[in-house]
Design goal:
The chain is elongated and about 95 Å long. The chain has two domains: 3-56; 72-143, Winged helix-like DNA-binding domain superfamily/Winged helix DNA-binding domain (Arc Repressor Mutant, subunit A). 57% of the residues lie in helices and 4% in strands. The chain has helices at residues 3-38, 41-46, 53-56, 72-81, 88-97, 104-116, 133-138, and strands at 120-122, 129-131. The protein has a two-stranded antiparallel ribbon.
Length: 150
C-alpha cells in the first residue's frame, strides 16, 4: 500500500468512529428526552431545558399602557352594548353616550383594534359585532354599565 491508500483508510476509520459516537450520543439524547417526558408537568414547566432569560436581558423597560388595554370610557361604551349584537353606527352611539367624540372613521379603526385584541368578535348578521366573553371578564364590564347621557 502506498501513502495515499493509508490516508484514505485512516479517514474511513475516523469516519466510522465518528458515526459510532454519533449513534451513542443520539441514544443518550433519546433516553434523556424520554426521562423528561416522564417528569410531572409542573416540574417540566418550572425548569425548561433552554432558558429564555437571554431574550429579555437587553430589552428596555416598556412604558405606557399595556397592549390591548382600553380606556374607561371605551370600556363603558362596550359594557353598554355587551350582550347584544351591534353595528358600527350603534357603537358610535354608545361611544357618544359616554362622552367619546367618535365618527365612522375613528370607530371603524377602533373596531379593528378591538378585533385584533379579541375584545370584539365578528358575527355574520347585519349587526356584525359582539363583545367577547373574554373582554367582558378581562375588563370587568359588569361594573361599567352606565345609563346613556341625555
Amino acid at each position: 500500500m502506498d501513502a495515499l491508500s493509508d490516508e484514505i483508510n485512516k479517514k474511513r476509520a475516523e469516519l466510522s468512529s465518528l458515526k459510532e459516537r454519533e449513534a451513542a450520543v443520539e441514544s443518550e439524547l433519546r433516553v434523556l428526552e424520554r426521562a423528561d417526558a416522564l417528569r410531572p408537568l409542573a416540574i417540566r414547566l418550572a425548569s425548561p431545558a433552554i432558558s429564555d432569560e437571554h431574550k429579555f436581558k437587553n430589552l428596555p423597560q416598556r412604558r405606557g399602557k399595556p397592549v390591548g388595554s382600553i380606556s374607561i370610557k371605551w370600556r363603558t361604551a362596550l359594557a353598554n352594548v355587551y350582550g347584544s349584537r351591534f353595528n358600527l353606527h350603534m357603537l358610535i352611539q354608545a361611544a357618544i353616550s359616554v362622552g367619546i367624540s367618535a365618527n365612522a372613521t375613528s370607530a371603524s379603526e377602533r373596531l379593528r383594534y378591538f378585533q385584533q385584541h379579541n375584545i370584539v368578535s365578528v358575527a355574520s348578521d347585519p349587526y356584525g359585532y359582539q363583545v367577547t366573553e373574554e373582554a367582558y371578564n378581562r375588563f370587568d364590564l359588569a361594573k361599567m354599565v352606565e345609563t346613556p347621557r341625555v
